[in-house]
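Entry for iron/sulfur cluster complex. Fields follow.
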Amino acid sequence: MDRRTFSKMALGGGLLGLFLGAGKSGGAGKDFIRPPGAEPEEIFLATCARCGKCAEICPLGCIKIAHGEQGLAIGTPYIVPLEGYCDLCMKCVEVCTAGALKPVPKEKVRMGLAEIDKDICLARKGEDCRVCHAACPFYDKAIKLENYKYPTVDPDYCTGCGRCENVCIASPQKAATVKPRND
Ligand code: SF4
Ligand code: SF4
Ligand code: SF4
């Protein structure tokens, strides 16, 4: 199968996702954290050429490609912050000739939204932990310290880059986790 044929099939799959409400494909961004600048999920599925160029260029290797068990999203890029965060270098956007990833200022990226589980956060348990606060690229904006102690996410600044989840030292479960945004 040549690339044009594959792209057409992929586009067809994306459009089918529109009609099916995207189903198992993770419609409306419910299941996947996409690379920076991704169009809203339905448009992304219909636009992404499944070329893999974003994954190839990513210097951190944090972009994964969805496989068959992920339904109509097969071939599309996504990020699992636990395994690799995004440092917002925006190289993936530069190589996306299909327009599925659109240029956006770093501070306006909204790949996902971090949450901090108060029951797990070590700072809430009395430990002097500020690892996520220190690591966040939007220092003291996306994660602020409530009462100078407790890390708290500000959704107006969080890009969803995943660094806080990646570095969180709470174990075995991370206190900081990033979920796809649904807005
Ligand atoms: S570079 Fe763009 S079109 Fe290609 S797989 Fe990545 S998001 Fe899809
Ligand atoms: S912005 Fe850079 S680090 Fe983030 S996913 Fe794209 S290429 Fe990878
Ligand atoms: S709070 Fe976490 S996901 Fe949000 S910008 Fe900071 S490090 Fe990234």
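NOTE: The first strand starts at residue 63 and ends at 65.
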